[in-house]
Structures are given as structure tokens and as C-alpha cells.
Amino acid sequence: MSAYKEIAWNGIWKQNTILVQVLGLCPLLAVSTNFVNAVSLGLATVVVMLLSNLAISALRALIPYEIRIPVFILIIAALVTVIDLAFNAFLHDLYLVLGIFIPLIVTNCIVLARVEAFAAKNGLRASTLDGIAMGAGFVWVIGLFGAVRELIGQGTLFSGIEMIFPTLSGIQIFPADYPGFLIAMLPPGAFFVLGLLIACRNWLDARANQRLRDRRSHGQPSAATSVAT
Questions:
Q1: What per-residue confidence (pLDDT) applies to 220?
Q2: Taking the chain, what is the end-to-end CA distance rounded to the nearest angstrom?
Q3: Is residue 199 predicted with pLDDT exceeding 60?
Q4: How far apart are CA 136 and CA 142, in angstroms?
Q5: How far apart are CA 94 and CA 81, in angstroms?
Q6: 96: left (phi over 0), alpha (psi -120 to 50) or beta
Q7: pLDDT greater than 90 at residue 56
Q8: For residue 223, what pLDDT band results from cuts at 50, 70 and 90?
Q9: Phi, psi (5° rounding) for residue 197?
Q10: Axis crossing angle, helix 68-90 with helix 35-59, rounded to the nearest 10
Q11: 23, 40, 49, 104: which could join 131 in a potential S-S bond, CB 3.0 to 4.6 Å?
């Protein structure tokens, strides 16, 4: 269980694909102009990561080492095609918004990196959990990323939710006459938000490490006590 907890924690926080490994920046910067678009693409990526990890872990003994990368890409491409067709059939309006970025999941460094680094070397349970955890780490970051950009740039949240749930509508957080902040919706603004999120994560990790060092230092006997003993 400790090994599975470590895999989950690595995917969600410790080895987060965006905040630590800085992978998958193309969809992060291009699609995350609002929360709905960001989470939708993130969930599609999670499904691809889960199924590709599962498939490649099951077939790893049958895949020759010399041609593993083309085989991995072929499996990922087949899964992405299924997701692309599903979006087109059931979420057509959202499919038109996301456009080329759904097929581009095939070339997403996150998916191929986890398949090569983990699924091809581990069993089904661990690989499945790794796919879910790494995907969940990607989703929460890209979702927060989209929410921040949408809130600052447009003053709304959940804009476009009607493309998924027709009975719902977005929320106007700031007054209706809010002029917006254009740079938050453009690539330079996306880099600013990314830098702030990475800085916040590093600060939280530094605080946690400092608290751990403090607890260890308080728990150890002082030099004078050791000599007296």
C-alpha cells in the first residue's frame, strides 16, 4: 500500500507533470483560456493515459525493445482516435472549440513519457494507478490554470458549461461591465500564471521541508544532554 500511495502522491504533487516536469505546455497554454475547456481536455488526456498505461503494461513482454516507441505511439493514436470520435459524436460543440488539440494528445509528452518510463516496466495495478494519478495531477493544474485565466481575463467562471450541460450556464463573478484583462487570455499571460503556480508549489514544498527539519531537530537530544548521559 505504501508503494501505491507513493505512486499517487508522485502523480498528483511530487512529480506533477506540469509544475515539476513542465510537460504538456502546448495544450496548457492554448486551451486553458477558461475552466471548462481546460478540464475537458484534461479529462480526455486522463482517459488516454489510463488506457495506454493499461494496454502497454499488459503487452510489454510482447513488444520488442527496438520498436517500442512506434508501437507505443500506435496504441496511443488508436485510443486518441476513439476519444476524438466520441467528442465529435456526443459533445460536438465542445469538439469544435477544442479542435486540433484532441488529436494532438498523441504527441503530448506527458502520455508518451509515462508509458516509456513506467508502464513499460511495471505491472497492471501500478501502471493503472500511475496513469490515473499523473492524469489527475494534470487535470487539477490545468483546471486551476483555466479558472485563474478566465476569472482575471473575463470575470466569469464555468463559461461554456452549456456545451456539456445545456441546462447550466456560466457564473458572472465580477460586475457585468468588467472590462476584462486581455493579457490573461493571451500566451504571455499564460506564462505569467504558470510561473506563479510553480512559485507557489515551490514555496509550499520549502515550508513543508522546513517544518520537517524543525520536527527532526526538536526530536533529537542536544549535544550537552548526550554528553551528560
A1: 55
A2: 40
A3: yes
A4: 10
A5: 16
A6: alpha
A7: yes
A8: very low
A9: -65, -40
A10: 140
A11: 49
- For 187, the domain range is 2-211
For 21, counting Cβ atoms within 10 Å of its Cβ (0-12 exposed, 13-18 middle, 19+ buried), the class is middle
* 218 part of a folded domain: no
In this prediction the pTM is 0.88
CB 79 within 8 A of CB 87: no
The strand pair at 171-172 and 156-157 is best described as: antiparallel
Q: Is the pLDDT of residue 214 over 90?
A: no
Q: Is residue 216 situated within a structural domain?
A: no
Helix (H, G, I), strand (E, B) or coil at 33: coil
| Number of structural domains the chain divides into | 1
Grid cell digits, residue 192: 505569467
Check whether 126 has a pLDDT greater than 70. yes
**CB contact at 8 A, 199 and 47:** no
The average pLDDT across 168-180 equals 89
Complete DSSP assignment for 95-120: HHHHGGGTGGGGG-HHHHHHHHHTGG
Separation of CA 146 from chain center: 12
**Which residues face 156 on adjacent strands?**
172
R_g of the chain, CA atoms, integer Å:
21
Calpha distance 76→56 (Å, rounded): 9
List Cβ neighbours of 14 (8 Å cut-off, separation of 6 or more). Answer: 20
Q: For position 180, what pLDDT does the model report?
A: 85
